[in-house]
Amino acid sequence: MTDPRHTFELWGHEEAENVFRTALASGRLHHAWLISGPAGIGKATLAFRLARLLLNGEDPDSPAGRRITAATHGDLLEISRAVDEKKGRLRGEITAADVRPVQSFLHHTATEGGWRVVIVDGAEFLNRFAANALLKILEEPPPQAILLLTTASPGKLLPTIRSRCRALALSPVSDQDMRAILPDVSEDVLARAHGSPGRALFLAQDRDGAIAGFVAEILAGKALTAEMLPLIDRIARETEGFALLCDLLGEGLAERARSAARRGDLLLADSSARQCSELDTLKRQTDGFNLDKAQAIRQAVERAAGM
């Protein structure tokens, strides 16, 4: 997907945008907004679109528009997970040090005499200290300042943060819009993306369907065999292979838990939900400590195939 800062077209979220525009036009714009929805659905794209609206940068060729694109606009601050230079990937959390610049930014006079806008992209990654620091800002917001928080997991945020934000929950993008956005992506992948363009592109990285097929076998109860090891090694070597496997396996376990609960099979529902949680922990530990991905995949498969 294109960097949200460089994206000027928004698909499927006109209703959410209109809610914000109406509040702005009324003169009663809430100081903090929580934009929620699945990963890849367009939360950050909407946040930057709203920032452009506030900062007179909707025209990408205008002076303000160019500054926003170039990340040089003095009245826009983006907070997100920083890159761990040693590991070459995003850190697992947003720290208090990442949030600290917000306080001084919001208490300076706007460079262009209007709004000051802070985007916190991925607010679910705020650690405890960062969350508390942000909460203090939300409790005493300065005038002419707007905070736009995005999250794929609003339940992971402090209730006190959620309560101080106006909610904007994004709905899945329609099938028609998904096909227009991603004409080269297969119908099967679009169906499994659940209305999220970013997720569709993520799933499309499994070009030959090998990972999806492997996960389907595991969820069907097939035990780990020696014949599977070359495929596991291949998945571990691929850039997004481990993440794809964990995503598909986690989705399958979550659906198993939901289906079992609907049937009244609470034992299976509880077991599947626990496996899903264990898989999430395994993924975070593997990524966080740079553990052997092939070994982690084998552990995930052994746990899931035990059903």
Automatic annotation (TrEMBL):
Which Gene3D superfamilies does the UniProt record give? Answer: P-loop containing nucleotide triphosphate hydrolases
Q: Which residues cross the membrane?
A: none
Tree of life domain: Bacteria
Designated name of the protein: DNA polymerase III subunit delta
Name its species. Gluconobacter japonicus
